[in-house]
Amino acid sequence: MSSRIAHPHYMQFRRLPGGKVLMTNAVGGNIVISGQLFDKFCAGRLTFDEMPAALAKQGFVRELCDEECYKRGILERYFEGWKAPHVHIISLSAACRLSCVYCCAAATDGDKRRMTKETADKILDFIFALEPDRYLLEFQGGEPLLTFPLLKYFVFKARKMASHKKRPVFFSVVTNLQECDEEKFNFLTGQGITVCASLDGPAMVHDLNRPAHGGSSHSKAAFWLKRFADYAAENGTEYPNAICTVTRHSLPYAKEIVDEFIACGLKRVQLGPVDPLGRAFQAWDKIGVSSSEFLNFYGKAISYIMELNRKGITVYEKAALAFAKQLNGLARPRYQNLDILYRLAYNWDGGIYGSDEARMLSNSGDEYFRLGTAGSCSFAELMRKPLAIRLIASSLTELRQPMCSRCPSSLYCRVPPVYNYITQGSIHGNMASNERCMLYRQVYELLSSLNAEKEKADIFNKWSLGYE
Question: Left if phi > 0, otherwise alpha if psi is -120 to 50, otherwise beta: which for 68?
Answer without folding.
Answer: alpha
